[in-house]
Design a protein that fits this description.
The chain has about 260 residues and is of the alpha+beta class. It folds into two domains: about 25-65; about 70-265, Ribbon (Umud Fragment, subunit A). The chain contains three helices and twelve strands, in the order H-H-E-E-E-H-E-E-E-E-E-E-E-E-E. Strands 1, 2, 3, 4, 9, 10, 11 and 12 form an eight-stranded antiparallel sheet that branches. A four-stranded antiparallel sheet has the order 7-6-5-8, with no helix packed on it.
Amino acid sequence: MDTDVQLPERDRSPDPVPGEGGGSRSSRFPQRFLRRAWGWLAGGGPLRRTGVLLAGCLVCVMLVSSYVVQPFVIPSGSMENTLRVGDRVLVNKLAYRFGEEPRRGDVVVFDGTGSFVQDPPSENAVTALVRKAASSVGLMEPSPTFYVKRVVGVGGDRVVCDGRGRLTVNGRAVTEDYLFPGDTASRVPFRAVVPEGRLWVMGDHRSASSDSRDHLGEPGGGMVPVDRVVGRADWIGWPFGRWTSLERPAAFADVPAPRPGAAHG
């Protein structure tokens, strides 16, 4: 083997670059990038700085709305009088992230694809992007596949409404004080057993709500998968005169736990 062959040098300069402290090129890159970015920002005047500040604020708002709290515009009267058309509800997206699951009485926002909507409407990419950005700050209604309803039955529950408009869950009568004035639990009798991992949901304005009752004969039986729930509506944030928290009602406090195996029979 020829030991006299010299390897080509990567850098022929005998000394480190003055002022760089002898650091590697990879460590010097972030420093140069930050200096150039600061020079670009400082040299652009107040208009450029304002634009960057607004863009940064928008990114922060979208991150918060994607993972923590998101405002949703109420598009219909199906949840009156609890929620009215045009209300902005603040949806807690962390409510069910750490082992907690929706409970009876919770007002939830969910994606109805596969339960309430079998064939989602098509939407071009630009429109979908604009809608997503605007709805994340409460300026537009969310996707038409998103719904807000109240949880009436959870996995294993037997939900029944007789011909007189009386609702029972697991055999216990439920008095729903939050219903729209003049409404009963349902003018149409029904009987449903909720499978595990799914929810039976209804609007508070029963005579004006399309909910689980209307999808009993469809795939999924009108039951919403728990993993399709976006979050729990915890507050009304707009208009100012309707600022309030949405507490879980006491209507379901005495409902017994479902019988073992009830979801299968």
